[in-house]
Design a protein that fits this description.
Layout lengths: L2 H5 L2 E8 L2 E7 L5 E3 L11 E7 H6 L2 E7 L2 H7 L4 E7 L5 E2 L8 E2 L1 E2 L5 E6 L1 E6 L2 E16 L6 H4 L18 H7 L4 E5 L10 H6 L39 H6 L22
Parallel strand pairs: 5-13
Antiparallel strand pairs: 1-2, 1-4, 2-3, 5-10, 6-7, 6-8, 6-12, 9-10, 11-12
């Protein structure tokens, strides 16, 4: 790692080697190596994962977990990347983790893919990495690390993998960030028998973040609605309350006079 990035607080957290997380050792002078030897029996793709100590100290990272079923990994390949974008100036977007497709996620022992995403954009102000809370994260998307990644393309083996596959996000992540969460888990489900996406049915494949406020939600969706559950699999309200929590608070979950806002509709067809 070069000294300029290191002076701003960046460091190598881990390597992703052929889709798997590998721990690193800091040898000093911004030089990192794998914590244990890697036996080379086939081609290797080694990608460093960078995090920032300043963002960590500020408490401005959100940890993202993505549950990807085997069917999805068959279609996408052995890796999932995460791309985030932020409010910029003059209507432009900022990219904290690089241009699309973003940064690879790390697969843990439970098969989940994990990454940390900053809640806000940071900039170099006179050599100091500084948070700009006026530039909040607007959204994220998961993808198969295909587009613009010539090396990774060599590890994609089927025609279905050799295209850009991704989820869609409008302002869900912005809403979740504003609610103060520091950990978010996505369950990605693959529906092989569906040919029309919710993206097409609900917004006619629009990609410009059009507002759906005040518009009726059509009853037909490509994927059926499912019960909302938390990370433990318990049924929750849209505000995250379990039935037990709501009873303890003497509340049904709607505790303000503000109108209820739908922050996500249905599921994403992959």
């Amino acid at each position: 790692m070069n000294s300029t990035e290191a002076n701003l607080g960046y460091y190598v957290y881990a390597f992703v080697v052929n889709g798997e997380k590998v721990d690193v050792v800091d040898n000093g002078n911004n030089v990192y190596q794998t914590a244990s030897p890697i036996t080379v029996t086939k081609d290797l793709e080694i990608t460093p994962i960078y995090y920032n100590k300043v963002i960590e100290a500020d408490g401005n990272y959100i940890t993202i977990y993505t549950n990807a079923p085997a069917e999805l990994q068959t279609l996408w390949g052995n890796s999932i990347s995460i791309y985030s974008w932020y409010k910029g100036d003059d209507g432009k977007y900022l990219e904290m983790d690089g241009a699309y497709p973003g940064q690879l996620m790390m697969r843990d022992s439970q098969g989940r893919f994990a990454a940390k995403v900053s809640k806000y954009a940071y900039t170099n102000v006179d050599g100091k990495f500084t948070c700009d809370k006026s530039k909040q994260v607007l959204g994220i998307t998961n993808n198969n690390y295909y587009e613009h990644e010539d090396v990774h393309n060599n590890f994609l083996t089927t025609a279905a993998q050799k295209v850009n596959n991704q989820t869609y996000d409008y302002d869900d992540f912005e809403k979740l960030t504003g609610m103060g969460y520091d950990t978010v888990e996505f369950d990605v489900k693959y529906y092989a028998d569906k040919t029309v996406s919710n993206q097409e049915l609900l917004v006619n494949n629009a990609t410009n973040n059009i507002s759906m406020a005040g518009k009726p939600i059509i009853p037909q969706t490509a994927t059926k609605y499912e019960d909302l559950t938390n990370i433990d699999g318990k049924l929750v309200s849209i505000l995250g309350y379990t039935n037990e929590t709501a009873k303890a608070k003497n509340s049904t979950g709607l505790i303000t006079g503000e109108p209820l806002k739908i922050i996500s509709v249905g599921g994403t067809r992959i």
